[in-house]
Amino acid sequence: TSGGGGGPSVSVDGQMLSLVLLVALLMLELKDKLLARHELEAGRAVQRALMPERCPRLAGWDVWLYTRPANDVGGDLVDCLELGPGRVAFVLADVAGKALPAALLMAKVQSTLRALATDAPSLSALAAKSNDILCRDGLPDRFATLLYFDLRDNDGQVRLVNGGHMPPVLVSAGGYHELQRGDMALGMMPGASYHEQRQDVRPGEMLVAYSDGLTEALNAAGEFYGEDRLRADFAGLAPLTAKEAGERILAS
Protein backbone atom coordinates (compact mmCIF):
# COMPACT_ATOMS: atom_id res chain seq x y z
CA THR A 1 0.00 0.00 0.00
CA SER A 2 1.03 3.60 -0.28
CA GLY A 3 1.24 6.21 2.42
CA GLY A 4 1.54 9.99 2.61
CA GLY A 5 4.90 11.77 2.61
CA GLY A 6 6.48 9.21 0.32
CA GLY A 7 7.13 6.72 3.15
CA PRO A 8 5.78 3.17 3.05
CA SER A 9 2.85 2.15 5.24
CA VAL A 10 1.11 -1.16 5.83
CA SER A 11 -2.60 -1.86 6.31
CA VAL A 12 -4.15 -5.22 7.08
CA ASP A 13 -7.02 -6.45 4.96
CA GLY A 14 -10.03 -6.75 7.26
CA GLN A 15 -11.42 -9.81 5.49
CA MET A 16 -8.10 -11.63 5.72
CA LEU A 17 -7.84 -10.90 9.45
CA SER A 18 -11.36 -12.19 10.02
CA LEU A 19 -10.52 -15.36 8.13
CA VAL A 20 -7.38 -15.94 10.20
CA LEU A 21 -9.30 -15.42 13.45
CA LEU A 22 -12.08 -17.77 12.28
CA VAL A 23 -9.57 -20.51 11.44
CA ALA A 24 -7.92 -20.08 14.84
CA LEU A 25 -11.27 -20.32 16.63
CA LEU A 26 -12.23 -23.43 14.65
CA MET A 27 -8.92 -25.05 15.54
CA LEU A 28 -9.49 -24.30 19.23
CA GLU A 29 -13.03 -25.68 19.04
CA LEU A 30 -11.78 -28.83 17.29
CA LYS A 31 -9.13 -29.27 19.96
CA ASP A 32 -11.79 -28.99 22.69
CA LYS A 33 -14.02 -31.53 20.93
CA LEU A 34 -11.14 -33.96 20.47
CA LEU A 35 -10.26 -33.59 24.15
CA ALA A 36 -13.89 -34.16 25.19
CA ARG A 37 -14.06 -37.18 22.89
CA HIS A 38 -10.90 -38.59 24.43
CA GLU A 39 -12.32 -38.10 27.93
CA LEU A 40 -15.57 -39.86 26.97
CA GLU A 41 -13.63 -42.77 25.49
CA ALA A 42 -11.60 -42.99 28.68
CA GLY A 43 -14.84 -42.90 30.70
CA ARG A 44 -16.30 -45.69 28.60
CA ALA A 45 -13.17 -47.79 29.14
CA VAL A 46 -13.47 -47.29 32.91
CA GLN A 47 -17.19 -48.10 32.81
CA ARG A 48 -16.57 -51.30 30.87
CA ALA A 49 -13.85 -52.28 33.35
CA LEU A 50 -16.38 -51.98 36.17
CA MET A 51 -18.65 -54.53 34.54
CA PRO A 52 -18.29 -58.19 35.53
CA GLU A 53 -15.86 -60.13 33.35
CA ARG A 54 -17.90 -63.30 33.74
CA CYS A 55 -21.20 -64.45 35.12
CA PRO A 56 -20.70 -66.67 38.20
CA ARG A 57 -22.13 -70.15 37.85
CA LEU A 58 -24.95 -71.25 40.11
CA ALA A 59 -26.05 -74.88 40.23
CA GLY A 60 -29.58 -75.21 38.91
CA TRP A 61 -29.57 -71.77 37.27
CA ASP A 62 -28.92 -70.45 33.76
CA VAL A 63 -28.20 -66.70 33.83
CA TRP A 64 -27.37 -64.31 30.99
CA LEU A 65 -26.41 -60.64 31.41
CA TYR A 66 -26.23 -58.03 28.66
CA THR A 67 -25.79 -54.27 28.46
CA ARG A 68 -24.82 -51.84 25.71
CA PRO A 69 -24.78 -48.04 26.20
CA ALA A 70 -26.67 -45.99 23.65
CA ASN A 71 -23.96 -43.30 23.86
CA ASP A 72 -20.25 -43.39 24.72
CA VAL A 73 -21.14 -43.86 28.37
CA GLY A 74 -24.47 -44.75 29.91
CA GLY A 75 -26.44 -44.85 33.11
CA ASP A 76 -27.47 -48.51 33.12
CA LEU A 77 -25.79 -50.88 35.55
CA VAL A 78 -25.65 -54.64 35.09
CA ASP A 79 -23.57 -56.31 37.77
CA CYS A 80 -23.12 -59.50 39.76
CA LEU A 81 -21.45 -60.16 43.08
CA GLU A 82 -20.55 -63.44 44.76
CA LEU A 83 -21.86 -63.14 48.30
CA GLY A 84 -20.57 -66.50 49.49
CA PRO A 85 -20.37 -70.15 48.45
CA GLY A 86 -23.32 -70.92 46.20
CA ARG A 87 -24.84 -67.47 46.57
CA VAL A 88 -24.75 -64.65 43.99
CA ALA A 89 -26.38 -61.24 43.76
CA PHE A 90 -27.42 -59.82 40.39
CA VAL A 91 -28.10 -56.12 39.93
CA LEU A 92 -29.93 -54.12 37.30
CA ALA A 93 -30.04 -50.36 37.88
CA ASP A 94 -31.03 -47.44 35.67
CA VAL A 95 -29.85 -43.92 36.49
CA ALA A 96 -32.05 -41.02 35.40
CA GLY A 97 -30.46 -39.09 32.57
CA LYS A 98 -27.76 -39.93 30.07
CA ALA A 99 -24.08 -39.45 29.26
CA LEU A 100 -21.37 -38.58 31.76
CA PRO A 101 -23.46 -37.40 34.76
CA ALA A 102 -25.53 -40.61 34.63
CA ALA A 103 -22.38 -42.72 34.25
CA LEU A 104 -20.79 -41.09 37.30
CA LEU A 105 -23.86 -41.74 39.43
CA MET A 106 -24.01 -45.29 38.10
CA ALA A 107 -20.47 -45.87 39.41
CA LYS A 108 -21.61 -44.49 42.77
CA VAL A 109 -24.58 -46.88 42.86
CA GLN A 110 -22.36 -49.84 42.00
CA SER A 111 -19.70 -49.04 44.59
CA THR A 112 -22.34 -48.46 47.28
CA LEU A 113 -24.08 -51.77 46.64
CA ARG A 114 -20.80 -53.68 46.51
CA ALA A 115 -19.66 -52.13 49.78
CA LEU A 116 -22.88 -52.95 51.64
CA ALA A 117 -24.10 -56.20 50.08
CA THR A 118 -22.09 -58.81 51.97
CA ASP A 119 -22.87 -57.39 55.42
CA ALA A 120 -26.46 -56.25 54.91
CA PRO A 121 -28.84 -58.03 57.32
CA SER A 122 -31.60 -58.09 54.68
CA LEU A 123 -32.39 -56.91 51.18
CA SER A 124 -34.74 -54.32 52.62
CA ALA A 125 -31.95 -52.91 54.79
CA LEU A 126 -29.53 -52.92 51.84
CA ALA A 127 -31.89 -50.89 49.65
CA ALA A 128 -32.76 -48.47 52.47
CA LYS A 129 -29.10 -47.84 53.34
CA SER A 130 -28.15 -47.39 49.68
CA ASN A 131 -31.01 -44.93 49.25
CA ASP A 132 -29.89 -42.85 52.23
CA ILE A 133 -26.30 -42.74 50.94
CA LEU A 134 -27.41 -41.61 47.48
CA CYS A 135 -29.68 -38.96 49.00
CA ARG A 136 -26.73 -37.70 51.04
CA ASP A 137 -23.95 -37.95 48.45
CA GLY A 138 -25.75 -38.02 45.09
CA LEU A 139 -26.34 -35.36 42.47
CA PRO A 140 -29.33 -32.98 42.64
CA ASP A 141 -32.39 -34.21 40.74
CA ARG A 142 -30.72 -37.53 39.98
CA PHE A 143 -32.03 -40.90 41.08
CA ALA A 144 -31.64 -44.56 40.17
CA THR A 145 -34.08 -47.40 39.86
CA LEU A 146 -32.87 -50.75 41.18
CA LEU A 147 -33.54 -54.46 40.85
CA TYR A 148 -31.44 -56.57 43.20
CA PHE A 149 -31.71 -60.36 43.06
CA ASP A 150 -30.31 -62.87 45.57
CA LEU A 151 -29.96 -66.38 44.08
CA ARG A 152 -28.61 -69.57 45.61
CA ASP A 153 -27.43 -72.95 44.36
CA ASN A 154 -30.24 -75.40 43.57
CA ASP A 155 -32.83 -73.11 45.16
CA GLY A 156 -35.67 -71.97 42.92
CA GLN A 157 -36.76 -69.19 45.27
CA VAL A 158 -35.58 -65.76 44.15
CA ARG A 159 -35.28 -63.07 46.80
CA LEU A 160 -35.39 -59.57 45.35
CA VAL A 161 -35.93 -55.93 46.13
CA ASN A 162 -37.31 -53.43 43.63
CA GLY A 163 -36.59 -49.72 43.98
CA GLY A 164 -38.74 -47.99 41.38
CA HIS A 165 -37.81 -50.27 38.50
CA MET A 166 -40.20 -51.90 36.06
CA PRO A 167 -41.21 -55.28 37.49
CA PRO A 168 -39.48 -58.45 36.31
CA VAL A 169 -41.60 -60.83 34.27
CA LEU A 170 -42.01 -64.54 34.97
CA VAL A 171 -42.30 -66.42 31.68
CA SER A 172 -43.60 -70.00 31.44
CA ALA A 173 -44.98 -72.29 28.76
CA GLY A 174 -48.48 -71.14 29.69
CA GLY A 175 -47.80 -67.42 29.37
CA TYR A 176 -46.26 -64.73 31.55
CA HIS A 177 -47.06 -62.37 34.41
CA GLU A 178 -45.38 -59.37 35.98
CA LEU A 179 -44.17 -59.51 39.55
CA GLN A 180 -45.54 -56.95 41.97
CA ARG A 181 -44.54 -53.32 41.73
CA GLY A 182 -41.60 -52.04 43.74
CA ASP A 183 -40.94 -49.15 46.08
CA MET A 184 -39.41 -45.71 45.58
CA ALA A 185 -36.37 -45.21 43.37
CA LEU A 186 -33.05 -44.71 45.17
CA GLY A 187 -31.87 -41.18 45.85
CA MET A 188 -35.27 -39.46 45.83
CA MET A 189 -36.15 -39.21 49.52
CA PRO A 190 -34.11 -40.13 52.61
CA GLY A 191 -35.69 -42.57 55.03
CA ALA A 192 -37.66 -44.45 52.39
CA SER A 193 -38.47 -48.07 53.24
CA TYR A 194 -38.24 -51.09 50.97
CA HIS A 195 -39.74 -54.55 51.18
CA GLU A 196 -38.30 -57.85 50.07
CA GLN A 197 -40.16 -59.92 47.50
CA ARG A 198 -39.86 -63.68 46.99
CA GLN A 199 -40.68 -65.53 43.81
CA ASP A 200 -40.45 -69.25 43.08
CA VAL A 201 -39.04 -70.05 39.64
CA ARG A 202 -39.72 -73.65 38.65
CA PRO A 203 -37.84 -75.72 36.08
CA GLY A 204 -38.86 -74.58 32.61
CA GLU A 205 -39.75 -71.05 33.79
CA MET A 206 -37.75 -67.91 33.16
CA LEU A 207 -37.44 -64.60 35.01
CA VAL A 208 -36.81 -61.65 32.67
CA ALA A 209 -35.54 -58.28 33.94
CA TYR A 210 -34.83 -55.32 31.66
CA SER A 211 -34.50 -51.54 31.62
CA ASP A 212 -36.40 -48.98 29.54
CA GLY A 213 -33.41 -48.83 27.21
CA LEU A 214 -34.95 -51.94 25.65
CA THR A 215 -38.54 -50.78 25.24
CA GLU A 216 -37.50 -47.24 24.24
CA ALA A 217 -35.08 -48.37 21.52
CA LEU A 218 -35.83 -46.69 18.18
CA ASN A 219 -35.75 -48.16 14.69
CA ALA A 220 -34.82 -46.31 11.49
CA ALA A 221 -38.40 -45.01 11.19
CA GLY A 222 -38.25 -43.48 14.67
CA GLU A 223 -40.66 -46.02 16.19
CA PHE A 224 -40.23 -47.27 19.75
CA TYR A 225 -39.74 -50.98 20.27
CA GLY A 226 -42.38 -50.73 22.98
CA GLU A 227 -43.98 -52.94 25.58
CA ASP A 228 -46.33 -54.64 23.10
CA ARG A 229 -43.50 -56.01 20.96
CA LEU A 230 -41.66 -57.17 24.06
CA ARG A 231 -44.75 -58.94 25.39
CA ALA A 232 -45.21 -60.67 22.04
CA ASP A 233 -41.62 -61.92 22.25
CA PHE A 234 -42.27 -63.61 25.60
CA ALA A 235 -44.23 -66.35 23.83
CA GLY A 236 -41.90 -69.23 23.17
CA LEU A 237 -39.03 -68.06 25.38
CA ALA A 238 -39.52 -70.63 28.16
CA PRO A 239 -37.88 -73.64 26.39
CA LEU A 240 -34.81 -71.59 25.41
CA THR A 241 -31.59 -71.06 27.33
CA ALA A 242 -31.17 -67.67 28.98
CA LYS A 243 -28.71 -66.56 26.29
CA GLU A 244 -30.94 -67.76 23.45
CA ALA A 245 -33.91 -65.91 24.93
CA GLY A 246 -31.94 -62.71 25.39
CA GLU A 247 -30.53 -62.81 21.88
CA ARG A 248 -33.99 -63.43 20.43
CA ILE A 249 -35.28 -60.29 22.16
CA LEU A 250 -32.28 -58.27 20.94
CA ALA A 251 -32.77 -59.49 17.39
CA SER A 252 -36.45 -58.52 17.56
Task: Report what the structure shows.
The chain is of the alpha+beta class and 252 residues long. 37% of the residues lie in helices and 21% in strands. The strands form two sheets. Strands 1-2-3-4-7 form a five-stranded antiparallel β-sheet, covered by helices on one side. Strand 3 and strand 4 (155-163) form a beta hairpin. The longest helix is centred in the first third of the chain and has 37 residues, at 14-50. The radius of gyration is 26 Å and the shape is globular. The chain starts with 13 loop residues before the first helix and ends with a helix. The mean pLDDT is 83.
Give unreliable regions as ranges. none
What is the quaternary state of this protein? Answer: single chain
Global structural class: alpha+beta
Task: Sketch the major β-sheet.
Answer: 5 strands, antiparallel
Estimate the strand proportion: 15-25%
Radius of gyration equals 26 Å
Distance between the termini: 71 Å
Helix content: 25-40%
Q: Give the neighbour order of strands across the main sheet.
A: 1-2-3-4-7
N-to-C order of helices and strands: HEEHHEEEEEEHHH
Give the number of helices.
Answer: 6
Tell me how many strands there are: 8
